[in-house]
Write a structure and sequence with these properties.
Hsp33 domain, CBS domain Like, five-stranded antiparallel beta sheet, 35% helix, single chain, alpha+beta, 9 helices
């Protein structure tokens, strides 16, 4: 992975197949540094981060894409999010009696949520059971059932780096600069070659070397990459808006009981504190904006 924390698109010029490849290092480490996750949770979180980076880059919109799963296993909730194709964050919640030998997610549901800055929010829900299904297979099922687009994913993470490859059949009306092709065997051939990809190769080879090793007999065109980084969306303003939803009477009651209102971000552990004067000023400013 010569260029970590980047996503790069590629295209098979002689067929209607496109792909994305991503590698995460610093952004992944920034997420892990906020929490003391067990190693299996670290790996699963890395796969989710690689997945949202790949999925976000296949969609031409500005906004937020997230994957969230709730399961009956040891990991009760896991969420990864990519905003504007570049800003990543993620979090997991797991049981106190965590064991490496038990199922991580068990049976549950995974929600894929798309929230464009302009336009309607969309959410698709698919079942997931990591006793006999990987995250990659669950996402492939989603595309097959909901989007009716042939899609394959390969994901890997080891607690240090995370990476992923996505290959997708393009609609026949779309070209993205490729040639219309009568190569009906291309999909089976390309995905068969990609199935030979090992986790070690995915995590350690740079993009050009990896794609050449897999597809040296195909005509593959790489596009410019773009960067990825960890970024949390919490802010003092957002916390203030949440306090406004309590109502002034209840908010001041909390201040009287606790000395101040405290808000801790679960993603980045940033702490925000509002004393009585600050809470009073919040509601005073809010009333002025309404008049």
């Amino acid at each position: 992975m010569s260029s970590p924390d980047q996503t790069q698109r590629f295209l098979f010029d002689q067929s209607q197949i496109r792909g994305e490849i991503t590698g995460l290092r610093q952004s992944y480490q920034d997420v892990l540094s906020k929490h003391n996750y067990p190693q299996p949770v670290q790996r699963l979180l890395g796969e989710f981060m690689a997945a949202v980076a790949l999925l976000s880059d296949t969609l031409k919109f500005e906004g937020r894409l997230s994957l969230q799963v709730r399961g009956a296993g040891q990991v009760r909730m896991l969420m990864a999010e990519c905003r504007d194709h570049q800003a990543l964050r993620a979090i997991a919640q797991y049981t106190d009696d965590f064991s490496d030998s038990a199922a991580l997610l068990g049976k549950g549901q995974m929600a894929i949520t798309i929230e464009p800055d302009q336009g309607k929010r969309y959410q698709g829900i698919v079942p997931i059971d990591d006793n006999d299904q990987t995250l990659s297979r669950a996402l492939e099922d989603y595309f097959r059932q909901s989007e009716q687009i042939r899609t394959r994913l390969w994901l890997a993470a080891d607690g240090q780096s995370a990476a992923g490859v996505l290959i997708q059949a393009m609609p026949q009306s779309a070209s993205e600069g490729s040639l219309q092709s009568s190569d009906t065997d291309a999909w089976d051939r390309v995905t068969h070659l990609a199935d030979t990809l090992s986790d070690d190769e995915l995590l350690n080879l740079d993009n050009e070397t990896l794609l050449h090793r897999l597809f040296h007999e195909e005509q593959v065109r790489l596009f410019d990459s773009h960067g990825l980084h960890f970024e949390c969306t919490c802010s003092r303003e957002r916390c203030g808006n949440a306090i406004l939803t309590l109502g002034e009477t209840e908010a001041l009651q909390v201040v009287d009981e606790e000395g101040a209102i405290h808000s801790d971000c679960q993603f980045c552990h940033q702490q925000y504190r509002f004393d009585r004067d600050e809470v009073t000023a919040l509601f005073s400013e809010h009333r002025q904006t309404l008049n």
